Amino acid sequence: MIDGLFKTHIDPLWERLARPLAATGVTPNQVTLIGLVLVALNVAAFALHRSTVILGVGLVVAFAFDALDGAVARLTGLSSRRGGYLDAIVDRYQELAMMLALGWASEAWVAVIFGLSGAYLTSYAKARTAIEIPVDNDRWPDLFERQERIIFLCALMILSGSLFRSMGLEQRALVGGLWIYAALTQFTALQRARRAWTMLRRVDETDPLPPRRPRPEAADRA
C-alpha cells in the first residue's frame, strides 16, 4: 500500500541514495543479488547470536540496500524484464529466509506457514491476473504488501527482543506478532483476489472469450 500510494514520492528518495552506488558501475541485478546475500548472512548469523534485535537491525540494512536495485536501474538505464523477474524471485527467497528464522526463534510454525502462504498468495494474485489481462504493476494499493510486511517483521524482531524482553514477554510478543502478521497477509491475499476478480469481470463483460471448441477425442467420446 505504501509503495502503491506514495511511489512518486518514494522513488526520488531511493534515487538520491542510489547515486553513489550507480557511480561505481554496479548493475541492478548485482544489487539484487547482493541484497539476497545480505539477508542470508543475517539469517545465518542469527543461529550464532540468537538476538532478534541484531537480526531485525541487520535485516533493516539488508532490505534498505535491496530496495536500491530499481533506483540503480533507472539511473543507469539498465532496466530490463529479466531484472524485474530476478527481483521478484529474490524477494520470495528473502521472505522465506526471514520467516524460517522467525519460525526457529518462536517455534510458532503454524503461524509462519499461514503468514508465508498469505504473502505468496498476495504476490500470486497479481501475477496470475497479468496472465489473463494487462495490468498496471504499480497501482495495487492493498493493505499489507511486501514493504509493509518487511517493516512489520523488522519492528517485531527489534521490539520483542528489547522492549518486550525487558517485560519478560519476548516469546509471547513474537508469537502474537506472527499471528497478527499471518492474519494481515491472508486478508491482503483475499483483498487482492477480490480486486483481480472485479478487473477480470469487467473485461469479460466487454470482451468475452470465444467458446472453446471441443478436442477431437472429446467429441468422439461424446
Description:
It is a single chain. With 222 residues, the chain is mainly alpha-helical. It has one domain (2-205): Four Helix Bundle (Hemerythrin (Met), subunit A) (Up-down Bundle). Helix content is 81%, strand content 0%. It contains 10 helices and no strands. Helix 6 (109-132) runs parallel beside helix 9. It starts with a helix and ends with a helix. The mean pLDDT is 88.
**Low-confidence stretches at least 5 residues in length (pLDDT < 50)?**
none
Percent strand equals under 5%
* Record field, number of beta strands: 0
Overall SS class: mainly alpha
Total number of domains? 1
Query: If you average the pLDDT, what whole number results?
Result: 88
Overall shape: it is globular
CATH A-level architecture: Up-down Bundle
CATH topology: Four Helix Bundle (Hemerythrin (Met), subunit A)
For CATH, the homologous superfamily is named as CDP-alcohol phosphotransferase transmembrane (TM) domain
Number of helices: 10
Q: What integer value in Å does the Rg equal?
A: 21 Å
Helix content: over 70%
